[in-house]
Amino acid sequence: MMNLATLQRGFSQLQPRERLIIVLGMVLVAAAAVYLALAPLLERHAELQSRQQQLTADMRWLHAQSDTVARLGSSCQALVPQKGSDKDVITRLVRRNLLTLVSLQAQGSGAYRVTAEGRDANRLLELVHQVSCQGLALTSLEVKAAAKTGTGFTAVIEVTHVN
């Protein structure tokens, strides 16, 4: 087994140019090892720094928008929750908005799929607003041109009862 004394004796027996090549090789190997150890850390640091700058910019934007959000109020405060089952409430709201109820399917555990048609897309969106004010959370909304020509728009609304 080689020990330090054997290595020193073998190194001293080498010619000066061979010693220089070995020393330079060891320096290059050490530099490569340091680079390989630090490169992932430096790359991760750069990613985190970029992410921090992005989050800081987002935080500044959100802070700038806080006055706007503070001025917004919930228009649900003026609406009194209606009595009756969720199906009855949805049916009344569809009719109140002068829309045609194509289908109303219970999806289980307080979830409903409502398909309504109307000539005015704004009435469909008003329906969504009114339904959400009645304690039903919107999970999906799809508004598209009705299949029948000249009938306006069809909305497929999926809601879930909020406990």
Question: In words, what does this structure look like?
Answer:
With 163 residues, the chain is an alpha+beta fold. It folds into two domains: 4-71; 77-161, Ribosomal protein S6/Translation elongation factor EF1B (Alpha-Beta Plaits, 2-Layer Sandwich). The chain has four helices and four strands. It has helices spanning 4-12, 16-71, 86-96, 121-133, and strands at residues 100-108, 111-118, 136-145, 153-161. The protein has a four-stranded antiparallel beta sheet with strand order 1-2-4-3, covered by helices on one side. 13% of the residues are buried.
Task: Give a brief rundown of this model.
This protein has 163 residues and is an alpha+beta fold. It has helices spanning 4-12, 16-71, 86-96, 121-133, and strands spanning 100-108, 111-118, 136-145, 153-161. 55% of the residues lie in helices and 22% in strands.
Q: Give the helix level as a range of percent.
A: 40-55%
Mean pLDDT: 87
For the record, the count of structural domains works out to: 2
The CATH homologous superfamily of the largest domain is named Ribosomal protein S6/Translation elongation factor EF1B
